[in-house]
Amino acid sequence: SSMRGQIWIGVGALSGFIAVAAGAFGAHGLKARITPELLAVFETGARYQMYHALLLCLIGLLPLSSPVRWAATLCVAGTVLFSGSLYVLALSGIRWLGAITPLGGLCFLGAWIAVAVAGYRLAYPQ
């Protein structure tokens, strides 16, 4: 791919912006409109989106490699599946969407493993 790894810094920053906006929306716009349980679900989505926005920024600082590409892709997929499913569940009350959330969690776990592999390969080159 001709895409440079630094693009992930921008993607991470945009995701961080969305996470802050979602957190503010949850705290100020949703508090009186949804149950405390659903508000907690929404806030979990925003919190994990922020963690992984920061991870994407870190990924953008790493030299581009196969594990780095996997990490970035899994991070974005995890954000869409995990945080996205929690946002929609909280706003709609549609409970079956919670079945999608663990798939996003698995993507997040894979992203962290891929970053670990990338770091190991940087520390111990072949």
Binned strand content = under 5%
Radius of gyration: 16 Å
So what's the overall shape? elongated
Total strands: the figure is 0
Structural class: mainly alpha
Largest sheet: none
Q: Distance between termini?
A: 23 Å
Overall pLDDT, averaged?
A: 95
Order of helices and strands: HHHH
Low-confidence stretches: none
Give the helix tally: 4
Portion of residues in helices? over 70%
3D structure, described in words:
This protein has helices at about 5-30, 35-60, 65-90, 100-125. The radius of gyration is 16 Å and the shape is elongated. The two termini are about 25 Å apart. With about 130 residues, the chain is mainly α. The chain contains four helices and no strands. About 80% of the residues lie in helices and about 0% in strands. The mean pLDDT is about 95.
Defining traits:
mainly alpha, elongated, 4 helices, 126 residues
What's the short story on this structure?
This protein is elongated. It is mainly alpha-helical. The chain has four helices and no strands.
Summarize the SSE layout with pairings:
Blueprint: H1 7-30, H2 36-59, H3 66-92, H4 101-123
Helix pairs in contact: 1-2, 2-3, 3-4
